Amino acid sequence: MAKKRILSGMRPTGPLHLGNLHGALANWVEMQDSYDCFFFIADWHALTSDYENPGRISEYVREMMIDWLSTGLSPDRSTLFVQSHIKEHAELFLLLSMITPVPWLERNPTYKDQMDQIKNRDLSTFGFLGYPVLQAADIIMYKANGVPVGMDQVPHVEITREIARRFNYLYGEIFPEPEAILTKTSKILGIDRRKMSKSYDNAIYLSDSPDDIASKVSRMITDPQRARRSDPGDPEVCNVFEFLKTYADGETVENIGAACRGARIGCVECKKIMARNLIQALEPIREKRAEYKAHPGLVDDVISAGGDKARGVARQTMEAVRSVMRI
After folding, report:
1. Domains, the chain, ordered by start
2. Most CB within 10 Å of its CB: which of 26, 90, 120, 134?
């Protein structure tokens, strides 16, 4: 029985961090055995907000692919490609934009939120308003059955379903309506307890050295009510303890939690223990990153082969689209 196909992507707007790993990548790696996976680097989508400074996007594309490969995405089990290398995406985006009502885009909650929150860039562009149409083209191009997303991304998938439904109504049944596949995520916040983001300068990156990790962990916010080492702490409000739940064994977590409550361990010592565990856990990723950095041709081969496979599927889709649209 054929596996169901899924598709998802990431925008290359900077180095990947632990939030990306636990919010998406770890789930993608697990899904490779159960689905026919297509994962793409959405460099055109990066232009919707970073159109004034596109110079580093190509650098981020390579770094992102290295991070993907280093965390366990495999070109033998998934199709890994770069969006802009498949020009058919632009053609389908154009055709879908002809049938997509503007109010569908204006009611997109992400569009409204970012227009309100991002004041340092002019987002009043057609590209920013219309990015859900490009996103729909990305997904239905490969006739994906599902899209792995977090809860906040479900409205995006619903717009894609509406666009696919409208196309099928107008021209004939070509595209399946993809389902949102809700993925589990770990509670990983930034070192300041806000959402981990490069914009907040609070992220621990997959490419960070052990020294960088130790330095960032030393600045992490702990129990704000614990002023002195002799004060009993509450590990459940401590960001360091949350990291320990992910990166240390159960016995260590239990012992540190009890010691914190009994004021038998200080925050500095606890941070050092957590940093050692985190550094050790990320060591396999660092080793693989170093190998790919030393052999750039391996990355080029993955990008090229993934592009060839994705392009073959995209060309077949566009032949069918042109046929039913009679153009």
Report:
1. 5-188+296-325 (3.40.50.620), 208-289 (1.10.240.10)
2. 134
